[in-house]
Structure formats: structure tokens, C-alpha cells
Design goal:
Largest sheet: 5 strands, mixed
Number of helices: 7
Strand content: 5-15%
Shape: globular
Helix content: 25-40%
Bound molecules: iron/sulfur cluster
Order of helices and strands: HEEEHEEHHHHHEE
């Protein structure tokens, strides 16, 4: 019932937008995916909006569809999508004026069994940080949200855990492809000068990939969980990215995708930065 009401509100906003020709297309969701999934949908005419659906199976991030676009588009944005859009604006990948954001509250997404999707249980941002139109879900106000506990087990335990996780990795790059932030035309791991990826993949190569990706996501991860959800091998190295995210929040007061006006942590130069060892243990200076 709640989702039906929200869907109707979303449809009427979208219909108005398309009727007024303010946007050329609206990126949203429709029903009919595998096992009840709600899947990305591009509404181009006022009639199309009747196909739009909002619910707890709209897990896939749709913000990456507008990456690099230079025409005016509308987009239905749950908080993690709105954070991605904010990051794209901050990183000058899209212009704020080119996106009309229909922000929607989110109580969390579930899979076909009703279990929470990766990222959602830990998600602390349930209201879209930016929007042009806002669709409220009253249930969000009574959610009991507490920050996830640190998973830092100390240097040796961290290393052992990392080694076990990457043992499962087959270097398929699904995690990279699923991440909004991995939009480089050529990923560092695919470059051959230097050759980061020898013909025979060993643990060192896998570590290089995952550590490199972690560093490239420093202060940029919006904690959507898409990387973890996309891994068919069950590798979970997102806990490392989470630690880096926490470090950036503590040291720089910066949370990715919350404010397009805030200077990103990676552009801040502080001479008194703490230097923390990658896997947690050593602290220099
Ligand atoms: S990560 Fe947060 S905003 Fe995104 S789907 Fe999960 S609960 Fe919703
Ligand atoms: S972690 Fe999973 S998705 Fe990422 S490269 Fe390894 S096997 Fe593929
Ligand atoms: S690293 Fe994973 S959780 Fe973070 S933004 Fe990318 S896909 Fe989402």
C-alpha cells in the first residue's frame, strides 16, 4: 500500500515533467524482472510513466546511466543513487542543471526471499541528500540506524581475512563494473605499462587489484553494496573500503555524496595527516 501510494506520487511527478518537455527521458524502475525484481526503465512519453514502479526490489543503482550524459534527464533517486549523482557532480562528470532529481526515501531493499540486500543493513543515509522533488516514506523516520561496528581485527587477523577472501577471487571484474565510481576508460589493472596483470594470476596480482580499487574509492564510496552483490564468487572485501571510508570521515569530516559544494577529501592537503598502515597495524608520525 505504501509503495503503491509512493508509485502514484512518482508517476504524477514524472508525467508532469514529460508533459512540460523539461526532460527528454526519465530513468526509473519498472516491474517484471527475474524473481520479482524491479528493473531499470526509461520513460520517454507521458504514457510510459504508467509502467514506472517503486518498491523494495529497486536495488540496482540507476544513477550510473546518467554518467557523462549532456542532455536534460529526470531520474528517480533513492539515497545511494542521489549520493552517486552528488559524486558525479563533484567530480564534474555531470552538470547539476542536467539532472532533475526525484529523490525518494528508502527503508532498504530486499532479495526474492525478503532478506536485506548487501549494503542496506549498514546504510545510514535513508533520505536523499539532494533532490528537486521529494517523495517521502514516513517509515524512514522511525528506523533505528546505528553505524556499523569496525571490523578491524588487527594487522595479522586483517591480513589473514584478506588472504582468505581474495583466494576466492577469479578476477572477473564484476565488482568494478558494478561500482558507480569505477568509470575510468582504462582501469589501472588493464594497463600494460607497468604490467599489473601478468598472464598467470597470483595472490599478489589479486591484492594489487583490490588494494588499488580500494584506494581509488577512498572518500568516494557511497556504501551501496553493489560490488559485494555482484560477486558470484562470494568475495567480500568491502569491509576494507568501509574502514577507509571511516578513516576519511574521522580525519577529514567528509562523507561521499552528501554535499556537492564540499571539497572532496582527496583534494585536501593536510601536512599533519596521520599515516595509517593499509591493513590497520602500523601508525607512522
Ligand atoms: S544502500 Fe541505503 S539507500 Fe541504497 S538501497 Fe540500501 S538502504 Fe536504500
Ligand atoms: S571480487 Fe568477485 S566480482 Fe570482484 S573480481 Fe573478484 S571474483 Fe570478480
Ligand atoms: S565500492 Fe562498492 S559499496 Fe562502494 S560505491 Fe562502489 S559498489 Fe558501492
Amino acid at each position: 500500500m505504501i509503495y503503491e501510494e509512493m508509485t502514484n506520487n512518482i508517476r504524477s511527478v514524472c508525467e508532469k515533467l514529460l508533459n512540460s518537455n523539461d526532460v527528454e527521458v526519465i530513468v526509473a524502475y519498472r516491474g517484471g524482472g527475474v524473481e520479482g525484481m524491479q528493473i531499470p526503465y526509461f520513460a520517454k512519453t507521458p504514457e510510459d510513466v504508467q509502467n514506472i514502479e517503486w518498491g523494495d526490489r529497486c536495488y540496482q543503482n540507476i544513477a550510473p546511466y546518467v554518467h557523462g550524459l549532456s542532455k536534460k534527464v529526470g531520474i528517480l533517486a533513492k539515497p545511494c543513487d542521489a549520493r552517486i549523482l552528488t559524486q558525479y557532480i563533484t567530480e564534474q562528470q555531470i552538470k547539476r542543471d542536467d539532472v532533475y532529481i526525484i529523490g525518494v526515501d528508502c527503508v532498504g531493499m530486499v532479495d526474492e526471499n525478503g532478506d536485506p540486500r548487501p549494503g542496506c543493513p549498514d546504510c545510514m543515509v535513508r533520505k536523499p541528500p539532494i533532490y528537486d522533488e521529494y517523495i517521502k516514506d514516513d517509515r524512514v523516520d522511525s528506523l533505528d540506524l546505528s553505524p556499523p561496528a569496525s571490523e578491524d581485527g588487527g594487522l595479522e587477523a586483517n591480513f589473514e581475512r584478506f588472504r582468505k577472501e581474495i583466494d576466492k577471487c577469479i578476477m572477473c571484474y564484476a565488482c568494478r563494473q558494478a561500482c558507480y565510481g569505477c568509470y575510468c576508460k582504462t582501469c589501472f589493472i588493464d594497463r600494460d605499462l607497468p604490467d599489473w596483470q601478468p598472464a598467470e594470476i597470483d595472490a599478489g596480482t589479486k591484492m594489487t587489484f583490490h588494494m588499488g580499487r580500494t584506494m581509488h574509492l577512498a572518500g568516494r564510496c557511497v556504501e551501496c553494496g553493489a560490488c559485494e552483490a555482484s560477486c558470484e564468487s562470494g568475495v567480500n572485501v568491502r569491509y576494507i573500503i568501509k574502514e577507509v571510508t571511516k578513516f576519511i570521515e574521522d580525519e577529514y569530516g567528509y562523507s561521499a555524496g552528501m554535499d556537492p559544494e564540499q571539497v572532496p577529501a582527496l583534494l585536501v592537503n593536510k601536512f599533519d595527516d596521520r599515516e595509517v598502515g593499509f591493513l590497520g597495524g602500523e601508525t607512522h608520525g
